[in-house]
Design goal:
A hairpin with a 2-residue loop joins strand 1 and strand 2. With 306 residues, the chain is α+β, with helices and mostly antiparallel strands. Strands 7, 8, 9, 10, 11, 12, 13, 14 and 15 form a nine-stranded mixed β-sheet that branches. A seven-stranded antiparallel β-sheet has the order 2-1-6-5-3-4-16. The chain folds into two domains: 127 residues, D-amino Acid Aminotransferase, Chain A, domain 1, CATH 3.30.470.10; 152 residues, D-amino Acid Aminotransferase, Chain A, domain 2. The longest helix has 14 residues. The structure holds 4'-deoxy-4'-aminopyridoxal-5'-phosphate. The site of 4'-deoxy-4'-aminopyridoxal-5'-phosphate has 13 residues, from helix 6.
Length: 306
């Protein structure tokens, strides 16, 4: 149960049930919290966090983009995250780092103070009732009428709670129409990403994904591109027209919680045989890497053992 997990809050370790935020805080009222989500799992050497350095760096970049001050340096933040995992018995799951402003406020401007920090460890299914997905189970998706936030409106590379209104409306629309996930286009009508997922297409054996610029710099996205090249799959990052969704042999979402999430239907189009061979190959490869069974990828894993 989530309430029983141990949480890092401002340098102390406390029960999750005590990690609460005042309703009038700036972060509740204006969505001014930043966060990052990581995953950890079992390896031969004990529990390890996937690409801890990259996630911490992205969290710090989120803060920088929004002129927020983080009270810990990268190495201190990495250690606090590892220690939070050590203090919990969960063997595999997710980690969320949150930077927030707890002080009551009515102002639009955030308080000119450093962020407060909390770190949670959880199992999305057990703790928050997320739908469990069997290995290789496909999901349905729908091209949303809501366009991906444009980088000229807000710094979209910041993982700020307020930016997620975009994904919320898109995913809600998809759900209301009977689909699991949303695919968002950018303002030019090119494929961007899901609400909280990067997207990949496979066409004639090539792996295609939108370029960074109008999307979040997904760490899974970057990892899959490198992993694919390592096993001889040709990759392309660039502008992808919406029509490609009707043409692609395979489509999958990518993100920390479900590294490779096959799409079995987009709108009216069923993708026969999903997950296709490239999706399956990459899914297996990502599992090998995350569990420490792939030589050459050890520097992506950060053991929590002392
Ligand atoms: N796009 C968006 C908008 C996201 O919120 C996420 C989740 N962080 C992703 C893509 C996937 O990123 P990652 O692989 O780093 O989890």
């Amino acid at each position: 149960m989530f309430e029983n997990r141990t949480v890092y809050l401002e340098g102390a370790f406390i029960p999750a049930s005590e990690a609460v935020l005042p309703i009038m805080s700036h972060s509740v009222g204006r969505g001014s919290s930043i966060f990052d989500v990581l995953s950890f799992g079992r390896t031969k050497e004990g529990r390890a966090i996937f690409r801890l350095d990259e996630h911490v760096a992205r969290f710090l970049r989120s803060a920088l983009a929004l002129e927020m001050a983080v009270p810990l340096a990268a190495a201190e933040l990495q250690e606090a995250i590892k220690e939070t995992v050590r203090r919990n018995t969960l063997q595999a799951g997710a980690i969320k780092i949150v930077g927030f402003y707890p002080d009551p406020s009515f102002s639009l401007l955030p308080p000119g103070k450093p962020l407060h920090l909390a770190i949670f460890v959880f199992d999305p299914v057990e703790d928050f009732g997320e739908r469990p997905l069997a290995e290789n189970e496909g999901v349905t998706a729908f091209v949303s009428r809501w366009r991906r936030l444009d980088p000229r409106t807000v710094p979209i590379e910041a993982k700020a709670a307020a930016n997620y209104l975009n994904g919320i409306v898109a995913r809600t629309e998809a759900k209301n129409l009977g689909f699991d996930y949303a695919i968002m286009l950018d303002l030019e009508g090119n494929i961007a990403e899901g609400g909280t997922e990067s997207i990949f297409l496979v066409r004639q054996g090539r792996l295609l994904t939108p370029n960074i610029g109008n999307i979040l710099q997904g760490i899974t996205r970057k990892s899959i591109l490198a992993a694919a090249e390592g096993i001889g799959i040709e990759t392309f990052s660039g502008s992808l027209k919406e029509e490609l969704l009707g043409d692609a042999d395979e489509i999958f979402f990518a993100g920390t919680i479900h590294p490779v999430l096959p799409v079995s239907r987009v709108g009216n189009r069923t993708l026969p045989g999903a997950p296709g061979p490239v999706t399956q190959q990459l899914s297996a490869r990502m599992q090998e890497i995350a569990s420490g069974r792939a030589p050459g990828f050890q520097n992506w894993l950060f053991s929590v053992c002392k």
